[in-house]
User: What shape does this take?
Amino acid sequence: MLKHIFLFVLLCLAIAAGVLFYLSRGDTARLTVEQLSGREPKMTAPRREWLPTANIPDMVGWKADEKPVAAAGLTVSRFADGLSHPRSMLSLPNGDILVAETASPERTVGGVTGFVMGILMGQAGADVPSPNRIVLLRDSDGDGKADARHVLLEGLNSPYGMALVDGTLYVANTDALMAFPYKEGDTKIETAGRKILNLPKQAPNFHWTRSMVASPDGTLLYVGVGSASNIGEYGLDKEENRAAVLEVNPKTGDYRIFASGLRNPVGMAWEPNSGELWAVVNERDMLGGDLVPDYLTRVEFGAFYGWPWNYWGGHEDKRVQPQRLELREYTHRPDYGLGAHTAPLGLSFATNAKLGKPFTNGAFIGLHGSWNRKPLAGYKVVFVNFDANGKPKGLPVDLLTGFLNDDEARGRPVDVLIDSAGSLLVSDDAGGVIWRVSNAKAASNGR
Assistant: This one.
C-alpha cells in the first residue's frame, strides 16, 4: 500500500514538473507592442497554446521613497496609499473621490487550463480576498493628497462600476446592480441598497468586473459584462448576456444588449467631440504572444464585435466549434489596437484635464499588464491622441511608467480619472496606491 502511495506521489510530482517546464517555455512574442498597436495593428497567424504561457513578474510593492515615472513636464505623487486592492474610481461633484476596494469573488474554476490560470493569477497578486467596500477619499485642504478617508459602503460583492445620478449612487456588484441614496458630503451610507436587477454571474466567471457609466442625461446606465470564459469553452449557455454592454433603465430595471461580442469590456467613457460611447476591451488568450490585440473602440448600438467566433473584424478562431462563418460579414472591426495581452482596464477622456500638450485631446488608458506574454507588456498608463472628428490617431504615448523593473513589478495600474483640479488619478491595485499626475504650469494657465 505504501509503495503504491509513493509511486502515485512520484507520478504527481512528475506531472507537476512537466507542467512547470512547459509553462516556463511557453510562447515568445515575435512582434513589438508598437506593431500590435494603432489603427492598423499587424495581424499574424495564430500559434495555439495548450496551456497558457506563464510570465509573471514578482510583486514587490513600492518603497516609501519610490514612485512611477511621469512623462516629461509632469510630476507624480501619492494621493492616497495603504489601500487594499483599489480599482475603479468615481469623482463626486464636491471633489471627493470614491474608490472600490475589490477583487475577484470566490469561484471554482474547472479544467486543467482553469486550474493553471488560477495558480498564475495568485502569483500575479490578483487572487486575494475581496475587501468588498467603497472608500471615500477627501482632500480638504487642496494640497493634492487625501487627508481624510471613510468607508462609505461595505458588505458588497466584488463591486466595480459606480455612477452618481440625481442623489442616487449606483454600484455594480459582480452579481447585481444596486442603488443607494446619497447626498453631497456623505461619508457613510447606512441605508440598505435597492436591487435594480441581477447581473450575469455564471461560473467560472473569469471576468467578474461590472464596469458602468451613466448616459450624459442620466436616464440610462451602461454596464460592461465580460465573458465567463476565454472562448466559450465551458458552453455558450454560460455566456447569456455576457461579453456585452448592457443598457439599463435604472427606474424600471428593464435592460437590453446594447452591443455584443466584446470579450471583456472594462473601462467605458463618452468621447466629448462625437458624444459616442467608447470602451477598452480585453481580447482572447492562448493564440500566442502576438494575438489578439486588446483594443479601444466605439461601442455602437446593435454592433457585434466577434467574440468568440472571430476577432479583429473577421479573423476566424477555429478553436470555437461549431463555427459561425455567417457572422463574419457582420462583425465590427475595433477602432484601435493596444497591443496583445496588455490588459487595458481604465479609460478616461481628457475633458477638463490640465496636463498640457500632448495630453489635451484624447484618451488616458490604464494598462494593467500581461501575465501570459513574453516579453511582458502593459504595466503603464498611456495616452491615445484623437483628431477633431473623434477618431484615434498615431501610436499610444507613455504617460506613466516605472511599474516594471526587469522581472519585478512594483504595482499594476487599473483605473484613470481626472480630478477636480485637472490632474490624473491612477489606481494601483497591486501597490495599494492612488497616484496623482499633475502639471503645475498647465494648471496655472488653465490648461
